[in-house]
Amino acid sequence: MKIEIMNLSKKYGSLYALQNVNLTLGQGRIVGLLGPNGSGKTTLIKLLNGLIQPTQGQILMDGQKPGVYSKSKISYLPDKTYLNSQMTVEQLVDLFGDFYADFNFSKADDLLKRLNIPVQQKLKTLSKGTQEKVQLALVMSREAEAYILDEPIGGVDPVGRDYILQTIISQYNRNATVIISTHLISDVENVLDDVIMIKNGGIFLYDSVENIREREGKSIDEMFKEVMRWY
Amino acid sequence: MWQMDSNRPIYIQLVERIIKEIIAGKYQPGEKMPTVRELAEIARVNPNTMQKAFSQLEQKGMLYTDRTVGRYVTQDQAKIREKGKQLARQLGEKFLADMRALGLTEDEIMEVLKTLMSGDKA
Question: For residue B41, what is the nearest residue in chain A, using CA coordinates?
Answer without folding.
Answer: A166
